[in-house]
Task: inverse folding
């Protein structure tokens, strides 16, 4: 099973649309690690048509009521914590990097996904792989304020825990930046 993982959209539909189009070709399920921001982002996430869409809230999801109202059996909102088992692997997600790392260090899960700090990362804690897909919005807060970073997302083959990283170019093409 291939899991598409993205986070920190912050209403940036211009980067989300090509990411969803690519994920429709490369993933079986989609996990959004928070910070959609506005309810209309749910409409774009719904365009992932290959399988279920799992969404957790981040700290910038303001209209939780309307975001939740746009969910259904296929596009589901889980609050602040998501767990599942796929291909015999236990998966968890939480928006916050500092909480996700603690969850990963517990050793209870094989894969822990998170966002929040807008920095793409892959770390291993014992048997647990912890991944941050980076921001779809293409910005991160640095020492001098907001700075432009590559908009990125991941695809994890859960059966072998191999992760592929993708970036969205300025002309909205998808480029692979790591091999599984």
Result:
């Amino acid at each position: 099973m291939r899991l598409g993982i993205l986070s920190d959209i912050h209403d940036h539909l211009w980067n989300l649309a090509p990411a969803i189009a690519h994920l429709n070709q490369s993933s079986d399920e989609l996990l959004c690690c928070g910070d959609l921001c506005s309810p209309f982002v749910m409409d774009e996430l719904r365009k992932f048509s290959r399988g279920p869409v799992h969404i957790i809230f981040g700290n910038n999801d303001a209209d939780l009521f309307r975001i939740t109202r746009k969910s259904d059996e296929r596009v589901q909102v889980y609050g602040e914590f998501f767990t599942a088992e796929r291909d015999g692997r236990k998966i968890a997600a939480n928006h916050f990097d500092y909480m996700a790392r603690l969850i990963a260090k517990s050793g209870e899960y094989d894969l822990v996904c998170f966002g929040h700090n807008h920095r793409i990362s892959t770390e291993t804690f014992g048997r647990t792989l912890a991944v941050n897909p980076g921001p779809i919005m293409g910005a991160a807060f640095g020492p001098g304020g907001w700075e432009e970073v590559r908009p990125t997302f991941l695809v994890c083959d859960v059966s072998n825990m191999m992760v592929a990283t993708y970036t969205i170019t300025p002309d909205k093409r998808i480029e692979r930046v790591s091999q599984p």
The longest strand covers residues 162-168. The chain has a mean pLDDT of 95. Residues 13-26 form the longest helix (14 residues). Helices lie at 13-26, 41-45, 64-69, 97-105.
